Amino acid sequence: MNGLKLLLILFLLLPQQSCTQDIDKSLLKGYDTAFVIYSRSSGETISVDTLRSAQRLAPCSTFKIYNTLIGLELGLIEGPDDPWYTWDGVRRSYEAWNKDLSLREAFRVSAVPAYQILARQTGPERMKTYIDKIGYGTGDISSGVDTFWLPRDGKTSITISADEQVALLNRLLDGKLPFSKKNITILRDIMKVAETSKGTLYGKTGSGMDAEGKWNLGWFVGFVESGGEVYVFACNITGGENPSGIVTREIVEDVLKAKGLL
Fold it and tell me: What's the whole-model pTM score?
């Protein structure tokens, strides 16, 4: 009887244990990787490389999470599917940007021109006020209100670490940032990127380029709801071949699936 009880206890603990194991390094595809996963229920944190997770890098398009919230709070954006970005007629290399876009569409295709307009509408003073209120990375937006989140040679960019991305998202989900529940709900809606029988994934990619136009930095940050639990994560990759947000998302999804969370 004691043996059966022990087996039952071990069985009940399996889901939690599967989430606290180390990440299989083979899933990182050889990139230099910072990957942090935080369990909101247990408070446990997994970190692939604590030094890299503390290293601040340009957030790239992951800043669209907060750019969106600021725009919503200021009334510069309405609903997720209302008309928002009007294409200026300039053809850009990403075909998905060459048309009018709703907020949902602009977020999904990471339309930089749309979010640069939003940042200019917000203005440097209001943007800096929000950046300071939420405690976003270094807080430095001096390189330009419509470019500070993008890595640029010879220009200072705001930077943030994977650890800080996780802490900030956790505070957002706790309702401790200066954004309304309504606007956080809108954000959650447009951040939803995948759903399986095991979990629902919310996130935003970000990619950085070098002076030659080659990918040199990838981000994917967000959270996953699985089995009644929520896990907040942030991952960035450098080195290797063409690190980008798309590749980073693939890595994160592979890890979450290996852990039975997605």
Answer: 0.90
